[in-house]
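Q: Protein A?
A:
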Amino acid sequence: KWADPQYITDRYEECWEVMLGLFLIWGSKEGMKKEDLSDSDFANFLEDRIGEAMARAIIRIAHFGDVNHDTVANGGTLLNGTDKTYFNMLDGMFAQAIDITVADPNRLNAIAKNAAATYALQRFDSTDVTNKVAETLFESMLYGCDMRLRGQDGLMFLVTQTIADQYARELRSRNLDASYIRIEGGYKALMFEGIPVVPISIWDDFIQTYFKNGTKFFNPHRALLVTKDNIPLLTENEASLSELAPNYDAYQKKYFVDFGFMLDMKILEDYLIQVGI
């Protein structure tokens, strides 16, 4: 497989005048320097927020990117009104995973709730607890995956928060605590057959925000059995993913914050992943 990194860039601009009458004005400089927001308390606050937004953008693009994404009105799965350029810069992890399952259906374990017709019907309920749907999913993924995947070090289930919560409910319903391990700081982590179950709640956030048609979500429950070595982010330099270029233009009296980085992601080996969707 070949990397095909895309250059992702954006600019945030702000003028000090928007802060007039707001408490934020106290985060600017004094006197004639007030117009220059650089190195002010407000700028430091703003750059922290932009850094957080960049981190979310990296996950959004690397995991949910698809060059064919479009809105529901145009035959796609994105909520109408969504700017599709948020997602169609490159083919991300889920787009590649689905392509892998099309080429090799043995890599897929279907989640029935995803096909339900409404938001309410897509939610797990008490019957699902009784039927142990999350545990059954993990079992079918583990025992149905390629034997070469089962032999990998660092194997883990990456799951939406919905699946992690459902698995926890199933364990509690049987008063089982054996599938938890205690980790540093006293926190408990979910396990299945000794394999960590890692909830990624930001997946749920993106799905519930962007992937819906007004009646149902598009695949709200997702799980991957994989190692992190098989799903790398590809970039020029790790530092570039967090670098900002702030600048004050005295002529325009505006404060700019630019960022840009090269990004791609690849599922390196198709047989080293099992997909629950």
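Q: Protein B?
A:
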Amino acid sequence: MRKERSRMLAGLEQDCVWLEEARQKLIEKMEWVSRASAGKIPYTTVNGRHDDRSDNSADWDMGNGINWWTNGFWGGIQWLMVQATGDERYVTIARETEVKLDRCFELYEGLHHDTGFMWLPTAVADYRLTGDPLSRRRGLHAANLLAGRVNINGGYIRAWNESFFGGNAAGLAIIDCMMNIPLLYWASEELNDPRYRSVAMFHADTVLRTFFRPDGSCSHIVEFDPVTGQKVRVHGGQGLREDSSWTRGQGWAIYGFAVSARHTGEARYLQAARKTADYFISRIPESGLIPADFEQPEVPAWEDCAAAAIAASGLIELAEQLDEKEGKPYLRQALRLLKTLYVYRCNWSREEDCILENCTAAYHGKEHHIHMIYGDYFFMEAVFRLCQPMVSMW
């Protein structure tokens, strides 16, 4: 049961005076951005305008096509706006995205473990908020595809169909999937069928056993032998190196394990979320701006504001599951991250469709300090859920 906002924020009023202003600015910006980008499924911006990953000519391009892993967040933003404003116009835009994603089911081979990211904020959100039976069917179909990716030898959900760095992808699992498995928890609860929950917990327990380090940080990618299930090695992935701490991955771990704790009631998941949260908080720079990797050198000083927004939402989720005394320190840090983003890294102009600036997809990537739609989504989610009751997407 989610705590009442007044109880959550009691004693933190001075830290929260900016929240309502931020909420209003988000509503005002999305009012015109949603009109301008209706019909698109954006990931980033080009010359300030949203791109469109729903172009069918790019079906088989993992970097640009309809199967791209972030394609659920634009629809998710619309469902956040439905809850924040009650305006049915956002339902229409969200459902257009939902229908376009049906193409992924037809293609099939282009799908990956990110069916949670794609259909939880779209079809499942639609069903949770409106009861639409077709949306329910889409969500259950996506859940079955995700459950089908489990490797029972190693107890993990296979991430990708192809490896981005050579070799066989059959043994690859990544920390991000902790935010995909809530799709399985939902399906299990919806159908009263424990199979989906069992697969989700199978994966979560493997992550607990093989991804985490003694200090509470976690690896991005772990490779298993797909036949024996034995851990083979760790890959650096989108972080600085194999033994470093990719900040967005720490955010996925905080949020993902907190959500697993909510769905299962298992104390080990809540403890994992707390340990990772404590590690993350201990590494927040004085500026409050989160680097792309906590181990990165001073130069280049890449930021990842999406990581900050994800971690903030995860800290709020964690705080909601603890008593007031234990939860308040996590909530205070979430507010610190969000306020820093609000003051220093939000673009409210009409020259830019996205909101959150200085996001970095990968430390060694070609582009840095770009706009990414999921940065906007998690910033909006965190601000909105602190201002009013919201139905969880996860």
